[in-house]
Amino acid sequence: MLQRVGVSPIRVWVIKQVDADILHLCGIGTLYHPRQRPWTALETLRQHCYQGGVRLGNTGIVLNSRLFNVLVPLDALALQGPSIARWQGRDWLISRVPRRSWEHQGRLVAEREVDGEGERLISGEDVSRICDHVDRENAVTGLAVFHQGSGRAGGSQARGPIRRRDS
Fold first, then answer.
1. For the chain, how far is it from start to end, CA to CA, in angstroms?
2. What is the pLDDT of residue 1?
3. 3-class secondary structure, 81
4. 3-state helix, strand, coil in the chain (%, to 5)
5. What are the strands, taking DSSP E only, across the chain?
6. Whole-angstrom Cα distance, residue 78 to residue 137?
């Protein structure tokens, strides 16, 4: 695929983390390089040295490229169904990285999720090291009871439906 530099945006696959056989894929992004010439941005991308912004999906969110393991030109990675990609001459499993994890700076783990579309991998933050810091002997036990409005000044009630932050 020829990139018409200077005319069309430079689109890339945004990979958060590369494991032995899994690509933690954020999706398609667009290089945001207002202080670089498009040709320079494309060349640094091909040399795996691009430093700058990446606009992810259609969100308008621009994140620093340092948050991601690798940015791959669109024509260098091919999806072969929803859970397999072909990149660097081999097949990889795909684990989708949800928006809430795009800025996470630690390790990700892939977890299997089954829904109406079948089974797929979803990436989440690795919290296994948290257990290393838990003092089990001094842990508080018992039952915690929460009453509506007890934590708010004036005891105001919640309004509207409760929505998940990751949806």
1. 34
2. 41
3. coil
4. 20, 35, 45
5. 11-18, 22-32, 53-56, 62-64, 70-73, 77-79, 84-87, 90-96, 108-115, 118-125
6. 51
Structure tokens at 41: 């941005």
Diameter of the chain measured on Cα atoms = 64
8 A C-beta contact, residue 51 and residue 70: no
Name the CA dihedral angle for 102, 13, 33, 55, rounded to a multiple of 10 degrees.
-40
CA atoms 53, 59, 61, 64: torsion sign: negative
What is the CB-side half-sphere exposure of residue 31 using CA atoms within 13 A? 31
Note the pLDDT of residue 96: 96
Query: Which among 70, 129, 66, 128 is positioned nearest to 103, based on CA atoms?
Result: 66
Rg (CA), the chain: 21
Confidence band, pLDDT 50/70/90 cuts, at residue 2: very low
The Cα-based distances of 50 to 40, 54, 68, 100, 157 in angstroms read: 9, 10, 11, 23, 49
